[in-house]
Amino acid sequence: MLTRRAALLASAAVPLAPAAFTRPAAAQQPSTLRIAMTLADIPATDGAPDQGTEGIRFMGYTLYDPLVAWDLSSATEPAKLVPGLATKWYQDPADPTKWIFELRQGVKFHDGSDFNADAVIFTLERALNDKSPAFDRLGRSVLIASLWPLVAYRKIDDYKVELQTKGIDTLMPLLLNRVPIASPANFEKVGRDWQAYRKSPSGTGPWKMKAWTPRERAELERNADYWNKDRIPKSERMVLLPIPDVSTRTAALLSGRVDWIEAPAPDSLDKLRAGGCKIETNAIPHMWPYTLNLLPGQATADIRVRKAMNLAIDRESMVKLLGGLAAPAVGCVPSDHPWFGTPSFKIKYDPAAARKLMAEAGYGPQKRLKIKVAISTSGSGQMYPLIMNEFIQQQFAEIGIDMEFQVMDWNALLNTMRQGAKSPEGSQFGAINVSWNTMDPHNAFMRFVDSQLVPPRGSNWGYINDPEFDKLCAEARTTADPAALDKVLAKINTRMVDEAVFVWVVHDVWPNAISGKVKGYVHPKSWYVDFSPVTVG
């Protein structure tokens, strides 16, 4: 089963906290890696990291391990799923709705307690059993998107668990890479209080928490006893600084106050290179779209409006505006991807065709479409949201669409997404601008178009309700052969584009600007990165 799943995947500025830069560059120790994140706050440290995929990158896979992990060792091959805290998984031959996970033995949590089946059940109870002492509403809101298919689970023995899905679901193991395993012993130690757990977290990961100040910094230290000896960090410490403003991040690297920044200012690339920094990019599974409100009565429920919005954007000019730090998008995945399919609607820049479609939908100079969109100041995969949204706002205006923004913090935008377009908060928006990862079939497609995955279960924010999408999603979950699955997924992307259910803009290349002193970094084709081999000298 591992081989089959691995084969499938082969294919406004927030002020900087004064305390963030208290350590002068001269005091920098060679074994300390300092990173400026795009986030405005430190992600939750309790094993249910918030703030999207960036939260998992910095507070999920550092402090914790999932049952199913990513191999992030290559910059040329797509990241593949590999054993994490589970060494093997397979469907029960007698009942294929049941998945058996055999667990890794000899692993310790940072608090010294043993990882075993009880820890897996504890983590599941946290999100799925509101009668359990471990139940955590905040944790559930983050984890449920990966655990929603489960209808039952049980401990078979100390190192084996059984997870049961509603119907056959061959993709279930893929979801577990976003479920870090927390320590039940530590939960008891801190008085069964998840807020207290955040202050003293305990996972099995390659890094331990040393110090943490919300909105200012987190300091991690090497876990010298990490179970995977090949991934024991080479740096002694890693300091994470939330710096959402792109200019402030860039200035921090140029001044030597940090060693690594995410998403440098596009107009600073030449200056950074002249200062000895490297600009690292790679193709990652990502899309930067508008997720549209398709509820009855919404202007965006009209396919002519949706297609016009897609035809109004000059993506090549957008890429130039971003200094080449993006690639034009014509669907959820690039056109050369096996999941792309053969859509008949071609996403391109054609403002004349866009104006014609708007006129057919009843809009014109005397009746302009007014739409409100929720956007963020920065955040995981959001790239350069203020610049990009203003660019699109101008182009929409040229075809008769007046787009108003409500700008909010990234975590607030995620909360708006999780509440859905039917919620009081969401109903005012015709779209939300949330970037999405497309690393696996569920995350690339099904969570958006399956009618059972409306919030809070999934990311079907706009309430797409299409029997054909539901049929294709059900087919994907029961298709085990990778080649056959590729064909089903291609049909989903084809229909998504032909129905114009999103407005696709660009794909990110996750640019990082890194000091010349940083060695050992591999920029994988993934949203994630392995910090273990990185050193600063």
Structure in a nutshell:
The chain is built from 17 helices and 22 strands.
- How is the largest sheet built, in terms of strand order? 8-9-10-1-11-20-12
> What's the alpha carbon Rg, rounded to whole Å?
23 Å
Question: CA-to-CA gap between the ends?
Answer: 42 Å
Portion of residues in helices? 25-40%
Q: Write down the overall geometry.
A: globular
Which regions have little confidence, pLDDT < 50, spanning 5+ residues? 1-28
- Oligomer designation: single chain
Tell me how many strands there are.
Answer: 22
Main β-sheet, in a few words? 7 strands, mixed
Mean pLDDT: 93
> What's the total helix number?
17
Structural class comes to alpha+beta
**Proportion of strand residues:** 15-25%
Quickly list its features.
22 strands, 7-stranded mixed sheet, globular, 537 residues, disordered N terminus, alpha+beta
Helix-strand blueprint:
Elements: H1 2-8, E1 32-37, H2 52-59, E2 68-71, E3 80-83, E4 86-92, E5 95-103, H3 117-128, H4 137-147, E6 150-157, E7 160-165, H5 172-175, H6 184-189, H7 194-199, E8 207-213, E9 217-222, E10 237-242, H8 246-254, E11 260-262, H9 269-274, E12 278-280, E13 286-292, H10 303-311, H11 315-321, E14 326-328, H12 351-360, E15 369-376, H13 385-397, E16 401-408, H14 410-419, E17 431-432, E18 436-437, H15 441-449, H16 467-477, H17 482-498, E19 502-508, E20 512-514, E21 518-519, E22 535-536
Parallel strand pairs: 1-10, 1-11, 15-16, 15-17
Antiparallel strand pairs: 2-3, 4-5, 5-7, 6-7, 8-9, 9-10, 11-20, 12-20, 13-17, 13-18, 13-19, 14-19, 21-22
Helix pairs in contact: 1-17, 3-4, 10-12, 15-16, 15-17, 16-17
